[in-house]
Design goal:
This protein has about 375 residues and is of the alpha+beta class. The chain has 2 domains: about 180 residues, no CATH class; about 100 residues, Tumour Suppressor Smad4 (Sandwich), CATH 2.60.200.20. Strands 2-1-10-9-6-7 form a 6-stranded antiparallel beta sheet, with no helix packed on it. Helix 1 runs antiparallel to helix 6 and helix 4 packs antiparallel against helix 5. The longest helix is centred in the first third of the chain and has 32 residues. It starts with a helix and ends in a 41-residue tail after the last helix.
Length: about 375
């Protein structure tokens, strides 16, 4: 799916996950007089956090039809979301009872835990950072609205609305943070389901027809592709390189067949069989490196030793042509100057006659 739809589905799934969690918690915990208020909040928050953790991890499964793989990912989402929800709910209730801190602080802690689930599972620092930012903001906003709507004494519909708004806020802001803070991404321009996009958040992203990939290229357009046809790797300096994975038909970058690793630039087109992908990159190190290289080149030219002639004498900085200009006529587009006219005799003067030498004396 596109990145805009990703944010939309994250919000929708977050709302539904929170609603289903409330639907289970309402009859089991919230109306049980045998449970203390702290225990009710703890169990309800854990259930809501687990539902949100599973729902948000399944969003990427909707994008790329990797349901079997995503169901395996749902287990850590369930555990991390449940633990984060329990801790957030408990801390929020204790801070509210003993310190007077609003309950939205607890929901913010729950949002932080839910946002970190996918980054922890994928071992991706960028996903972890984006998830923490989005989850924390979503929990803060949703918690403030929840406290206002589902305040003490509110009836069942108001509590349900508060949980749904909480889930929508956390889901939408986690998805929005992933999209807004993205560094590099791919867009399917032509081929199998154009318009799909994927964020390059992993150290290595494989491209091909394998259904386990983040952006599988299936259908008729991918009939000649390998399961892992090519790979895109993020380098330590922030650049991205693409390399063919020893496929039969090869990988084409900007109309040229790849013969080895190539550095990707923003707007490059990658062709895999009948599929065309556009690479986008918002990293600024390329421009900075280019400016640094240009500055270094200019400094090297300015500090270079002056040229010398064949005799070892220094020439001016303009080079040999600056030391001695080329004679007129040696350049093809210049005409040779005519020879100078003979000097006229001086006025009033006469030319002196030439006196012949005398003959030698006769021999004796």
């Amino acid at each position: 799916m596109s990145l805009h739809r990703f944010v939309y589905y994250a919000a929708v799934i977050g709302g539904w996950a929170a609603f289903l969690a409330w639907l289970i918690a309402e009859p089991l915990f919230l109306h049980d007089d045998r449970l203390a208020l702290v225990v009710q909040v703890l169990l309800t928050s854990a259930l809501v956090g687990a539902g949100l953790g599973v729902g948000l991890i399944l969003v990427s499964g909707m994008a790329n039809a990797q349901w079997r793989r995503q169901l395996r990912r749902a287990i850590p989402g369930l555990l991390i979301g449940g633990i984060a929800g329990a801790i957030g709910g408990l801390l929020g209730q204790l801070l509210y009872d003993h310190v007077g801190v609003p309950r939205m602080a607890g929901w913010m802690i729950m949002g932080l835990g839910i946002g970190s689930a996918e980054g922890i599972y994928d071992r991706s620092s960028r996903k972890l950072r984006n998830g923490l930012i989005g989850g924390g903001l979503g929990g803060l906003v949703g918690g403030a609205l929840f406290s206002w709507i589902a305040r003490a004494g509110a009836d069942i519909p108001m509590r349900a609305t508060g949980f749904v708004i909480l889930g929508v806020s956390i889901g939408a802001l986690i998805g929005l943070a992933q999209v807004v803070l993205k560094e590099a991404w791919l867009t399917v321009v032509d081929g199998f389901r154009p318009g799909r996009q994927v964020i390059l958040g992993e150290a290595t992203t494989f491209l091909g027809r394998g259904d386990h990939l983040a952006l599988p290229l299936l259908g008729y357009a991918g009939r000649d592709l390998e399961s892992e046809h090519a790979r895109i790797t993020r380098q330590p300096d922030g650049q991205y390189t693409i390399q063919d994975n020893q496929s039969r038909i090869g990988t084409i970058l900007n109309g040229r067949l790849l013969q080895g690793p190539a550095i990707l630039a923003d707007g490059d087109l990658i062709r895999l069989g009948s599929n065309i992908l556009r690479f986008n990159h918002r990293h600024r190190k390329d421009a900075l490196a280019l400016e640094a290289a240009q500055s270094a080149g200019a400094a090297a030219v300015s500090t270079a030793a002056p040229p010398v002639s064949s005799a070892g004498l220094p020439l001016p900085q303009g080079g040999p042509t600056a030391a001695r200009p080329a004679p007129r006529g040696s350049v093809p587009w210049q005409r040779a100057a005519p020879p100078p006219p003979p000097k006229p005799p001086r006025p009033g003067g006469t030319a002196s006659p030439r006196i012949p030498r005398p003959p030698p004396p006769p021999p004796t």
